[in-house]
Amino acid sequence: MEKTKIALITGCTGQDGSYLAEFLLKKGYEVHGIRRRSSIAKLDRLSRIHYGPHAERNKFFLHYGDITDSASITQITKRVKPDEVYNLAAQSHVRVSFDTPEYTANTDALGPLRVLEAIRTLGFVRKTKFYQASTSEMFGNPLESPQHENTPFFPRSPYGIAKLYAHLITANYREAYNMFACSGILFNHESPRRGESFVTRKITQAAIRIVRRKQDKLYLGNLYAKRDWGYAKEYVEAMWLMLQQKKPKDYVIATGENHTVKEFAELAFRVLDIDIEWQGQGISEKGINKKNGKIIVEIDPYYFRPTEVENLVGNASMAKKELGWAPKTKFQKLVNLIMAEEVKNKDL
Ligand code: NAP
Ligand code: G4F
User: Signal peptide span per the entry (predicted)?
Assistant: First the structure.
């Protein structure tokens, strides 16, 4: 009988961590996740597996730890003896990284280093494969379009810069210690589990509240930023596939098409039978509900970033060729899928 594989996920309580845990459990893995202590347990995204049937519970374990705390990371790694580590823990909000640059560097740059060092110093280099959650934010103001694995990096935020350190240190451990360590350069991916302060969920939740008359307006920043938005549930499979290859290598994961924030808002409201008419320009631009003439979208400069990433779109052809991975859910389907879940949420 084949030995059960053991996976350790940092950032298990997050959007991707929860989908990845479910995916690996279905594959028959024993899954260990790291959770941070907080005043309220934030296990909503894990409810299906954490409170699920006993059989599944016996294969899913949560450990208290923090990516800024080497001792906890090393102790958990030592106890779990993972075959695969997925490092997803991060301060993942680009705007917030301008407010907390030092914390972001500690979490997003030094965090992965702590995990790599735990694997190395415990003598697990031959046993344990490592995945790092890299990001299209590293391309920043990209020098070419679409972006691929060899596009030069030009990050534009403390977040992007911290993630670039993590990306490069992962490559260094691969080369220096012959470790199976690789990074997925993932473009934006969303879902009904996406954090509520990212622009997609902010829009979909506001659209519902506006229709239910619980909110008057939606305040946004840059309406013209373009992103390559895919579906998170599909992207976690690519993470796993990268660790199943013969050799460790970094891959871009993307849909290959991009859209503006404005387009996203239009589609989300359209699901609720609301068409937006845009009037004005710059910070005076407003979105008006065509049916009743009410202003439903306004610009708040608070959401502008000191340095913005205007236009990202990825080329995932290497992943398609070598991993056999391709996105199934494109823009319109993604918006509909998130809206379908929001509509069911009676708390909004
Ligand atoms: P997310 O929902 O914000 O999840 C982040 C996870 O990291 C949460 O579980 C969070 O725990 C945990 N975390 C934060 N600080 C920590 C710390 N100090 N110690 C331990 N855990 C900590 O992010 P996501 O969208 O799932 O993204 C997963 C990873 O992929 C992140 O590294 C992100 O930067 C990267 N990424 C995301 C995208 C995207 O579009 N989603 C694209 C490219 C790369 P709490 O639940 O306690 O907050
Ligand atoms: O949804 P966002 O906050 O995502 P952003 O900055 O692209 O970062 C996400 O994707 C990265 C991959 O490229 C990840 F690495 C990162 O962890 C995160 O998951 O913003 C998207 C765009 C930006 O251009 C932003 O300026 O939307 C624009 N935007 C306009 N109004 C807004 C808002 N963003 C937010 N969060 N809130 C607004 O009101």
Answer: none
